[in-house]
Amino acid sequence: RDPVGTTSAATVTITGAAGQIGYATVFRAAAGALLGSETPVRLRLLEIPEAVRAAEGVAMELLDGAMPLLESVDVFDDPTAAFDGAEVGLLIGARPRSKGMERADLLSANASIFSVQGRAINEAAAPAFRAVVVGNPANTNALIAASHAPDVPAERFTALTRLDHHRAEAQLAIACGVSVNDVDGVAIWGNHSTSQYVDLTRATVRGRPAEEVLLEHGHDRRWIDEFFIPKVAKRGAEIIEVRGGSSVASAAHATLRHIRTWLRGTPEGSWASMAVPSTGIHGVPEGVVCSFPVTCSQGRYTIVEPWAIADFSRARIDRSVAELLAEREAVEALDLLGPRA
Ligand code: NAD
Ligand code: LMR
C-alpha cells in the first residue's frame, strides 16, 4: 500500500511523545491533521523509561478525547516494539537546546538516540516506512538513523525544515503587507541551523517576483541578505529568548505538514522544503541530508530541478553544506554511523 493510509488505518510511531512537541503533535495526529480526516490512525508512543508514566497519561487523555479516527494508542519504552509495523515515524524525542547553545551542541547528547532507533526501524518497521526527524541536530540525526537501517531505502529518512519554510513565508508576507496565502516559492537549502540559506530568488507575491515587490516596500537585496535571511535562520533562538523555551506548537504544526505534503502532494507549480538525502544534485554531495525545494506526489518527493543557482546563492548553499559535512565527520569520529555509511 503506497501512499500510506489512503484506504485504511495507518500505524504511526511518535518518539518523545510525552515531551512538549510530542504532546502538541499527538492530538492533532489523532484528529486527522497528519493523514487526513478519512484515515484512522494507530498511534505507538515511544518514551524513555523515566517518561513512560507521563506518556501513559498522554494516552489516557487521547482516549478521553473519544477521537473518531484513533483506532488504538500504545505506549513503549522499547524502540523495536514501538516501531513494529510503523508506516510513519515522527522522530521527535531528543533534548532541546537552551539559551546560548547552538543546535550542533546537541550532537553528542542526541546522536546515540538515532543509532538505536535506526536499528529498531530496520528490524521492525513496515515496508512503506517513512520518517521525519525533528530532534536536533535534525539533518545529521536523520543521516545517523538511515545509516543504521540499511534495509530501508535511505530516501525515506528526512529531517524537518518545513518550520524554516513557514517562517520564511510568514516574514515575507509581513514585509510585503500581504497574507501568507499570497506568497509562494520560498525555499530553504542546507542545514536546519543558522547557516541555512533562505532563498527568495523564485519566491512570488501575488504571482509577481518577491524581490520586485520587496523593493516597492523599500527592501533591497542588501535588506534580504542582512535582515531577512538572518531573521528566519535565527528565529529558533529568538523564540527561545522570547518564549523562554524552544519552539513547540509551530514545530508540531510543521511536522504534521511535512508528512502530509509528502504523502498527499504539493500543489501544482509549487514546492515545499524538506531535508532529504542528496542524490548528488545541485552540487550537494550524495547522501548528505540537506534541505532542498521538493515537489511531492503520491508518497514520493522529487528535488526541484533545473534551478539555475546564482553565485551569491551558491556560496551560501556551499557554506551550509560544509557545516553538514563537518557534522558528518564529527559523528563518524564518534563512531555513530552504521553499516550503510
Ligand atoms: P522535550 O524535552 O519537551 O521533549 C523531548 C522528549 O523526548 C522527552 O519527553 C524525553 O523523555 C523524550 N526522549 C528523550 N530521549 C528519547 C529516546 N531515546 N526515545 C524516546 N523519547 C526520548 O523537547 P521538545 O521541546 O519536545 O523538543 C524535542 C526536539 O525537537 C529537540 O531536540 C528540539 O531541539 C527539536 N526541535 C526541532 C525543530 C525543527 O524544526 N527541526 C523545531 C523545534 C524543536
Ligand atoms: C527551532 O528552529 O525552533 C528549533 O530547531 C529549536 C531550536 O533549537 O532552535
pLDDT average, as an integer? Answer: 95
Going across the biggest sheet, name each strand in turn: 3-2-1-4-5-6
Instruction: Give the topology string: H per helix, E per strand.
Output: EHEHEHEHEHEHEEEEEHHHHEEEH
Rg on CA atoms, Å: 19 Å
Sheet-strand content, in percent, reads 15-25%
Structure class: alpha/beta
Tally of extended strands? 14
Sheet having the most strands:
6 strands, parallel
Q: Helix coverage percent of residues?
A: 40-55%
What ligands are attached or bound here?
nicotinamide-adenine-dinucleotide, (2S)-2-hydroxybutanedioic acid
The helix tally amounts to 11
Shape: globular
By CATH reckoning, the class of the largest domain would read: Alpha Beta
CATH topology value of the largest domain: L-2-Hydroxyisocaproate Dehydrogenase, Chain A, domain 2
Total number of domains:
2
For the record, the CATH architecture of the largest domain stands as Alpha-Beta Complex
How far from one another are the termini?
29 Å
Which stretches are low in confidence, meaning pLDDT under 50 for 5 or more residues running? none
Function: Catalyzes the reversible oxidation of malate to oxaloacetate.
InterPro entries: L-lactate/malate_DH, Lactate/malate_DH_C, Lactate/malate_DH_N, Lactate_DH/Glyco_Ohase_4_C, Malate_DH_AS, Malate_DH_type2, NAD(P)-bd_dom_sf
Catalytic activity: (S)-malate + NAD(+) = oxaloacetate + NADH + H(+)
Family: Belongs to the LDH/MDH superfamily. MDH type 2 family.
